[in-house]
Amino acid sequence: MTPQSAQPTPAAPQPWWREAVFYQVYPRSFGDTTGDGTGDLAGITARLDHVASLGVDALWLSPFYPSPQVDAGYDVADYCDVDPMFGTLDDLDTLVAAAHARGLRVTIDLVPNHCSDQHPWFQAALAAGRGSAERELFHFVEGRGEHGELPPNNWRSAFGGPSWTRVTEPDGTPGQWYYHLFAPEQPDFDWGRPEVLAEFERILRFWLDRGIDGFRIDVSDALIKDTAWEDTPDGNPLIPKDDASGVHEIYRAFRAVMDSYDGDRMAVIETGAPDDVVALFLRPDEMHLAFNFRFVKAGWDAAAIRAAVDESLAAYGAVGAPTTWVTDNHDTTRSVTRYGADVRLEGEYVPGSTAELPLDDAALARGTRRARAMAVLLLGLPGAAYVYAGQELGLPEVVDLPAEVLQDPIVARSGGTSRGRDGCRVPLPWAGSRPPFGFAPDGTTTWLPQPEDWAPLTAESQADDDASMLALYRALGALRRAEPALRGGDVEWLEQTATRLVLRRTPAAGVGGRALTLVVNLGEEAAPLPDGELLLATAPLVGGMLAGESAGVLA
């Protein structure tokens, strides 16, 4: 008999989240069906066809829980319900079912570092007084000084100001201090107490039982504090994250809960730690994904972009984890403005930038070109990617919101030196020629005012424009789905100069598909294209060459 040639072994199916594109929805700013000026769950359901048209795989919903809204819902008063401002649990179930019917998974925010000061546990701790079991669930500490009148240490809040607030005891006397990494209305849990882990395991199961596919874990690496409470030279808190930190046991417990459900349930962590530390959280028995803040902080700089890609792929690959790419979210200045102003993000838990002043038309046009080019990299690198609602419309940061409408607690905590994050959270423009641009019924005053000149940026105005940002994201989404090389596989750098990046993307072994070349022109002048069939370009070619500050995909 003539021996048959060996056939390649098909690659084993990958869990959906390893190569997924997630679309982040900020519920307050997506769609208002009631006319109160604030988005709601029904407004998200009504726009799911728009989301599906982008070719994404999943939603990420920012907090919708009952909350006093001191920090836009990240001060959670009840982890297992929906705030009436957004609707009801039935509305959430309807949203999940409608998303699943369109092939979209649904992931939600989980906030384990802290809760609202209105949470029943914290209210019980205030009422119970010193030495109580209720206070042991948080970080209540005696103050320094003769009468305990000084904070326990010099640690500073990530929102500005001290990380300590003194309480009045039940008998009316000045009492202990409690720790909060963020605002005073957001007391940190003491994750050294087993009751806290047991409660969050219950919370995970509550949502998994309702069909939620995964979680985005807020401030994930900060759960464990050094409770010696020693002063630090710069006032930054001591938060152990290394291999010996108990934070990893917490995530092993979370992973066990998710693994007990079918459907490849998952979690992505938010951490600004260095790559080697992030990788510790992504070992096979811990979390699934981590946001790549190296990439979002790289700015419009060829060397920094390549370093972010190479070093992240190496660190995450060492533990068998995919990398997650992101350029925008609800905490960052929108990339159109960042790239137009030539600034980079700084900071660990609340990355900020110096792009505070309005940009002129030329700078906004430059930022839009660059954001279009970066979209090719964002959706062309191996692993998962995140797109923030409005990014696909090319929305800029709204940098001139009136001071009286700003709601971010960073504004007050910084003494007004920071304008906070409200500028990236302005309600989306869907249709029409004037506010509220289809976000809410005509005549509605939105919770943050929309710019009067946003008519050209509405989804309606971009829908039939092949040169629009929306058309680009739809084309990229379709191309990514059709081409395995844009989802997984290897990265080979063919060229790097100060003004040009060229990389070869090869599909993973056994997957099939063709190799593709991605080219990003970071300069202002037109540049030659590599050989190959041009599948997509972010700007018209100039004399057969790639236009300045644009990108392309070639077969």
Q: What would you say this structure looks like, in words?
A:
It is a single chain. By secondary structure, the protein is α/β, with parallel strands linked by helices. The protein contains 14 helices and 16 strands. It has helices at residues 41-46, 48-53, 89-101, 120-128, 194-209, 247-259, 275-280, 293-296, 302-317, 335-341, 361-378, 409-413, 459-462, 469-482; strands spanning 21-25, 58-61, 105-110, 140-141, 164-168, 174-179, 214-217, 266-269, 289-290, 324-326, 384-388, 490-497, 500-506, 516-521, 534-537, 550-554. Strands 9-8-7-3-2-1-11-10 form an 8-stranded parallel sheet. The model is unreliable at 1-8 (pLDDT under 50).
Count, helices: 14
Main sheet properties: 8 strands, parallel
Number of DSSP strand runs: 16
Range of strand content: 5-15%
Strand order of the largest sheet: 9-8-7-3-2-1-11-10
- The coarse overall form would be globular
Query: SS-based structural class?
Result: alpha/beta
Low confidence ranges: 1-8
Distance between termini? 40 Å
Topology readout:
Layout: E1 21-25, H1 41-46, H2 48-53, E2 58-61, H3 89-101, E3 105-110, H4 120-128, E4 140-141, E5 164-168, E6 174-179, H5 194-209, E7 214-217, H6 247-259, E8 266-269, H7 275-280, E9 289-290, H8 293-296, H9 302-317, E10 324-326, H10 335-341, H11 361-378, E11 384-388, H12 409-413, H13 459-462, H14 469-482, E12 490-497, E13 500-506, E14 516-521, E15 534-537, E16 550-554
Parallel strand pairs: 1-2, 1-11, 2-3, 3-7, 7-8, 8-9, 10-11
Antiparallel strand pairs: 4-6, 5-6, 12-13, 13-14, 14-16, 15-16
